[in-house]
Write a structure and sequence with these properties.
Elements lengths: L24 E10 L2 E11 L4 E5 L6 H9 L6 E6 L2 E2 L10 E4 L11 H11 L4 H14 L4 H4 L9 H14 L4 E5 L7 H18 L2 E6 L2 H7 L2 E6 L2 E6 L1 H6 L4 H6 L4 E7 L4 E5 L4 E5 L9 E6 L5 E3 L8 E4 L1 E8 L2 E9 L2 E8 L10 E4 L4 E4 L2
Parallel strand pairs: 3-8, 3-9, 6-7, 7-8
Antiparallel strand pairs: 1-2, 1-4, 4-5, 9-10, 11-12, 11-14, 12-13, 14-21, 15-20, 16-20, 17-18, 18-19
């Protein structure tokens, strides 16, 4: 008999999800070392039952290593992994109530689409009629007409269609949690946007817990209930997309979450700071007090900057300069505003918003900025 795919384990057809367990998956001080190199360093987090949780970070941050430990393909150097309160550190992949959707999908090329989806149910010993009925239901859920796709082979399907087949097969295992290793990275941008929304819809419909790994900020923002930002093997921040975007913990998180303006400032002991450039020095009104001589970053989102022809009254901050470049991005316009040679601020305004003439200043209110650690 063929064995389950690595990272997948057959489960009961009638398993239920209560959506009541806030510590469905617990990771405590998880560390992975390769010799003296720490790929993952004391990572701790919890995932709620029925949640779409995303781990996001740049290449080399430790995302895949962490994921491989969670599905049992790597043994932790130290730390604990719990699922529903039970430690699963030493359980092999095929003994865990989990399933993994790989970046390479790993479909069986010699099996039709329908048989690929039926494979997990065949392992469980379900009758052929039951397997076929369930496979048809899953293909329909994944927007693959069974009349057209059941007898097709993976090689006859597009990249997006193969991705749907892989997800249908993963759901056929009826796992308690599904892990995803950047499954949309090889798909073109337009189809990726469609599948992002479909994945979220499927997660809500099935009530399954999804643990998704990606380097794409867009995927994380579109699909996640919560996300964790990983850098150099450590968690920088965990929260909802809104929380992390609006209240980043530090400059790295702010930059990772999208285009931002980060000003290197030095405190004066009150609610003002100096922004030192090569030839200019600006006194900036802050949203809060910064100790004297303390260095920090001031975060200003591009959408919080506005143009004017004249300086704005205090407490607004006005910086002189000129528009260097203008870009149309769908419903928005993005501008590069040059404060002095080589110092550029990014400004975003709605496409239909009128721009004053001439543009001599960019300005923002103090409460529209945020002081961050470097």
């Amino acid at each position: 008999m063929q064995q389950p795919l690595a990272g997948c384990s057959p489960q009961r057809q009638n398993s239920t999800t209560t959506f009541q367990n806030p510590n469905f998956l617990e990771i405590q001080d998880l560390t992975k070392k390769y010799g003296s190199y720490e790929a993952v360093r004391q990572v701790s987090l919890t995932v709620n039952e029925g949640e779409f949780f995303t781990l996001v970070g740049p290449s080399g941050s430790g995302k895949t290593t962490l994921l491989r430990m969670l599905v049992g393909m790597e043994a932790p150097t130290s730390g604990v992994i719990k699922l529903k309160g039970s430690v699963i550190n030493n359980l092999p992949p095929n003994k865990r109530p989990t399933c993994m959707v790989f970046q390479t999908l790993a479909l069986f090329p010699h099996m039709s689409v329908g048989l690929n989806v039926e494979f997990p149910m065949q392992i469980r010993g379900l009758r052929e009629s039951e397997r076929r009925t369930r496979a048809w239901e899953l293909l329909k859920m994944l927007h693959l007409d069974p009349n057209k796709y059941y007898e097709k082979f993976p090689s006859q399907c597009s990249g997006g269609e193969r991705q749907r087949v892989a997800l249908a097969r993963a759901l056929a295992y009826n796992p308690e949690i599904l892990f995803f290793d950047e499954p949309l990275s090889a798909i073109d941008a337009q189809l990726r946007k469609i599948l992002q929304k479909e994945l979220k819809d499927i997660q809500r419909t099935t009530g399954k817990t999804f643990f998704y790994v990606t380097h794409s900020l867009e995927e994380a923002m579109v699909m996640s209930d919560r996300l964790a930002i990983l850098r150099a093997g450590q968690i920088e921040q965990i929260g909802s997309p809104h929380e992390i975007y609006s209240y980043p913990k530090n400059a790295f998180v702010a930059s990772f979450m999208g285009e931002v303006n980060l000003l290197d400032i030095v405190g004066t002991g009150n609610s003002f700071a100096f922004w030192e450039l090569r030839r200019s020095r600006f006194l900036i009104h802050l949203p809060e007090t910064l100790p004297s001589e303390q260095k920090a970053k001031l975060l200003i989102r591009p959408e919080n900057l506005r143009f004017s022809s004249t300086p704005q009254a205090s407490p607004a901050n006005s910086l002189p300069g000129r528009i260097l470049n203008e870009f149309l991005i769908g419903s928005r316009k993005q501008f590069h505003f040059e404060v002095e040679s080589g110092t550029i601020l990014t400004v975003e305004r709605l496409r239909e918003e009128p721009i004053p003439t001439p543009v001599n200043y960019v300005y923002w209110e103090p409460h529209e900025s945020q002081i961050l650690n470097s």
